[in-house]
Specification:
2 domains; TIM Barrel; mainly alpha; 183 residues; 6 strands; two-stranded antiparallel sheet; elongated
C-alpha cells in the first residue's frame, strides 16, 4: 500500500509508479490511493475540510500510468469511526471502477451498514478495509473476558478470548462480503 494521496497529483503519480516499479520484479502487489479520505490512518489526520473525492479523469490517468494491482479512490468514506452519516459517491465509484478496470479498495469500511457494503461491492469494490472494527473487536475481547473473569490473570486465556472475538468479526464480514470460499 502506497499512500501518497496527500501529495499533489503528479507527485503522487510519480511516487506510486516508483513503488510499482520496485515491487513488480519481486512479485509484490501494490495498492495506490487517490483523493483524501477523511479520518485518521497510521497517525495521519485528514480533516473533513481537507478531504476530497477522487476525480474520475485523474483516476483513469493515474491507473493507466501507475498500473496498481488495487486502487483506493476517495469516494466519501472515512477512516476510523463515523461521526455522522457517510455520503458515499456511488456514481463516482461506479464510473471509476468501470473506466479504470482495476480492483477497487474501499477504505473506511468500519461502521458502514450491510446495505452500503453490498452496494459498494456490487459497484466494483474488491477489497474492503475494516481495520478500526477489527481493532475494536480485539479490545472488546479483552474487556469482555476481564469483566467475566476479573480475578484471573492468565494471558493465554485473554489472548484466546481476543482471538475468538476477532475471528467472529472476520467470519461475519467474510459472509457479508460474499467472500466465503474465495481464497
Amino acid at each position: 500500500m502506497i499512500d501518497a494521496s496527500s501529495k499533489p497529483f503528479e507527485e503522487n503519480l510519480a511516487i506510486s509508479r516508483q513503488v510499482v516499479e520496485m515491487a513488480r520484479p519481486k512479485d509484490v502487489t501494490v495498492e495506490a490511493e487517490l483523493g483524501a479520505i477523511v479520518g485518521v490512518e497510521d497517525d495521519i489526520h485528514v480533516k473533513h475540510q481537507d478531504a476530497h473525492l477522487a476525480d474520475p479523469e485523474q483516476a483513469v490517468e493515474f491507473c493507466s500510468k501507475v498500473e496498481p494491482d488495487c486502487f483506493a479512490p476517495a469516494i466519501g468514506t472515512a477512516h476510523g469511526v463515523y461521526k455522522g452519516e457517510p455520503k458515499i459517491a456511488y456514481d463516482r465509484l461506479k464510473e471509476i471502477a468501470t473506466r479504470t478496470k482495476v480492483p477497487i479498495a474501499l477504505h473506511g469500511g468500519t461502521g458502514l451498514t450491510d446495505e452500503v457494503f453490498k452496494k459498494c461491492i456490487s459497484l466494483g469494490c474488491a477489497k474492503v478495509n475494516i481495520s478500526t472494527q477489527l481493532k475494536y473487536a480485539f479490545i472488546d475481547g479483552f474487556v469482555s473476558y476481564h469483566n467475566d473473569n476479573s480475578t484471573e490473570y492468565n494471558p493465554l486465556k485473554v489472548i484466546e478470548a481476543q482471538f475468538n472475538k476477532l475471528k467472529e468479526g472476520v467470519i461475519e464480514k467474510i459472509m457479508l462480503f460474499g467472500s466465503k470460499g474465495m481464497a
